[in-house]
Amino acid sequence: MSAPAGSSGDHSSAEHSPSPEHSLSPEQHNREFWDDDADDYQAAHGAALRRTPDAWGVWRVPEADVRVLGDVAGLDVLEYGCGAAQWSIALAGQRARVVGLDQSTSQLAHAAKLAHAARASADAGRALPLVCASGTQSPFAAASFDLVFCDHGVMSFCDPDATLPEVARLLRPGGRLVFSHTTPWPYVTYRHRTDRATRRLRRSYFGRREWAEADGTVDFVLTMGEWVRAFRAAGFVIDDLVELRAPKGATTTFGWDAGWARRWPAEQIWLLRLG
Ligand SMILES: C[S@@+](CC[C@H](N)C(=O)[O-])C[C@H]1O[C@@H](n2cnc3c(N)ncnc32)[C@H](O)[C@@H]1O
Hints:
Elements: H1 26-51, E1 55-56, E2 61-62, H2 63-66, E3 76-80, H3 86-92, E4 97-102, H4 105-120, E5 130-132, E6 145-151, H5 154-157, H6 160-170, E7 171-182, H7 184-189, E8 190-191, E9 196-197, E10 210-212, E11 218-220, H8 224-233, E12 236-244, H9 258-263, E13 267-274
Parallel strand pairs: 3-4, 3-6, 4-5, 6-7
Antiparallel strand pairs: 1-2, 7-13, 8-9, 10-11, 12-13
Helix pairs in contact: 1-4
S-adenosylmethionine (SAM) is lined by residues 1, 27, 30, 34, 49, 81-83, 87, 101-104, 107, 134-135, 151-154, 157-158.
């Protein structure tokens, strides 16, 4: 997941340069990050993600509880930043026609292994095409999908001024975009020394879009108003915003503080529809 106090690097330079490698765009930087980190990431989190494949965020809140995707049977679905495609495999098993897109060849190598194993198993669903491309430059024809979704995927790592028009292009009229990401609150309260979100506001909520880490990802974190205006500018209508709360007694492989995430929203899911 992309977040402070997550698994992937720390936020030691969160107040510093927008991009750790000035010669690289955020997209290139994130591709290098995920290609380098994929094996460690899957070793740390893969088992939990496989155990709860159709569930959201670091606490793996079940889709069956929040019901933000609904019935996907018969839909053309794009997972937008699929990682090892645990989610996509689960939805293919629910008779969706799913495509998994990711720009990291290392993450997709894990996805290909899992997809192959799923197909070989008794409860195999449909074939799962995996596409290596950046979410900002996908190879799909316009109006190819009924649903585009991600769980801490492309929408966390790319400028929404690029992704939202691209998703609007990919969706059929009335199609839906559903995505989870980290709220601004862990970022603005994050303390590097303890690698944790805290109870103190330490950074400004305003004036940034890119939050960069010295040895982690570049994340796009907008204010709530900026998100709403970006959605509307790309032609989306907001159906809902589901703030995820850590369930009682929750644990996670991502190193987040469950007590914090029971009191404040650390992750949220936007439900959008093409107007
Ligand atoms: C935290 S993982 C999310 C995947 C899965 N839901 C999980 O929890 O592991 C983030 C994924 O987004 C992908 N990603 C980041 N930027 C991307 C981009 N511009 N285009 C496509 N995929 C991207 C990364 O390669 C990585 O596999």
